[in-house]
């Protein structure tokens, strides 16, 4: 909508919508969603001619990035934001710091987008020269085409199209050129470009073909070729019909809705949208309709729809987030002792998972809901859901839930029915840990030892030993650590060996065997020369540094830092990450002042918060709760401070823990502290569950909890 109103010169509407979009983005709890949404808003504002607004929100995006928990995953987003605030050195440095060809291409394409939207064609062309993959290069060239069109140079844009070989990008670029010729009154050239675009579109498949066909159709409709437009509309509908959700069905349907405005009229197109039952899908299609109406000049109706869409968007929850919150609530309600409410909440979580569009996310939510149902004793419903959703891993979730719900025999029988070797190994490993949780230690050890395959066998022993150490079974853990360490040495995967030594070292520290943990760190160092991949060496170095940190050996962490600096075959581990491990090591070595000083010296806000949290936990475990609370309270980012207070509540006495958690709950999402609340105030978790069930019953009169 912002883009459409900008192209129509309605700048007041653009600024109003930009502010409203920013208000919605600010309500996101997830920092990563805030970041990506802000940068999308930046680009829409720039495309709509609001450069000042673009810079304003780009500055906000750069600020949000500093507190982002996974900065590496959002390097391209950061680069785009940096480019908009004029910091091209930072933007290009982000691209240059990516070692792998595929990842570097992703960042470069993002920078091309920023440069073209700013009108810096020379910089964009220079950046394209460094793009390796042909399809990404073509995507970048399409951006150049659009920028040239925006500058009123369709001749040069048409020449740029000739360098594009990918059908999807070629079709889209030619449609843009055709529209430019049409606006300038050159109908002959517009139709010639449209014919070329149609040929490219018909070389595409699925969603891309629908988008291309409807794009050419709009050109024919605008030039008065109504019969040709109608024929292309019907062709696009035929292509769109069999497209599945995983293959872009919603985007294809959005293109059909926009095309219907031109061929059938706005009322008929609106009727198509309103028949959609799923709220999220309906919102997407209504947004496409509003965009199409704005482009067709029906600004009043488009603005009315925009208001309606905003109201609905604020009222509708994201089904995936809702399902995951309900899963958390169900699990900890069962832990708090109310199995009936836990089962009802799990049933609702399963219902919320069904409309999730991404297949992987939907499966993950459903499988966890199955585990919660089994945990709550609703075993028949859990097994019925598992049979109707036979995805990989569902049986493991079901088995784990049954065991944790007290039905050990049934849980083990579910595992025995798994045929796939990899899935069976994963299920046995999870079963062993679940058996530890319910106190079936002999069964847990037998299950871990029964896993076949050297890698899987070692993994099962390591994770079961870790679970035993966490459960306080020192003697059993020590015995299984011996077996696990022997299994690691023959597992045949160098990076996996280092990772498993890291987990096992943590178990050794938990049972008080610091020397054993240090010996494992030394063993991991001996494996390092066999790891050749740069990114894998980087991960291994990080894990080894963490092992020395957990074992309370500051000199070991510093030694690893020097070895990393001398290693020319690895991606560098960040100094801030190493400083975090050093702070942990100093705290465990009973040097609290130095530990806190090192943690506070870390520049990266997220890693500084993580280091301060670890130091605070160690202070609390040593009995200095007031200092621990002071350290946690000094964390600048409110969300990270709440996480630190919650972590402290896990290791402090109930009276203190209640106060810490109460402070955290004022600012953090309600479901983040359930695991601690279940221990401190189980009646509160039960009350939350009943309130949530009442809310859902009011909002959805057609649903009632299963008895």
Uncertain spans = 701-707
In DSSP terms (H or I, runs of 4 or more residues), the helix count works out at 40
End-to-end Cα distance: 46 Å
User: How does the helix and strand content classify structurally?
Assistant: mainly alpha
Shape: globular
Largest sheet: none
Strand percentage lies at under 5%
Average pLDDT over all residues: 81
Report a brief summary of the structure.
With 707 residues, the chain is mostly helical.
What does this structure look like?
- This protein is mainly α and 707 residues long.
- The protein has 40 helices and no strands.
- It has helices at residues 2-7, 11-26, 31-47, 51-66, 75-84, 88-96, 101-117, 121-128, 134-150, 154-161, 167-183, 187-201, 206-222, 226-240, 249-263, 266-274, 279-295, 299-315, 319-335, 339-353, 359-375, 379-388, 394-404, 408-416, 421-437, 441-449, 454-470, 474-489, 494-510, 514-527, 534-550, 554-566, 575-588, 592-600, 605-621, 625-633, 638-651, 654-665, 674-680, 682-699.
- The longest helix has 18 residues, at 682-699.
- 51% of the residues are buried.
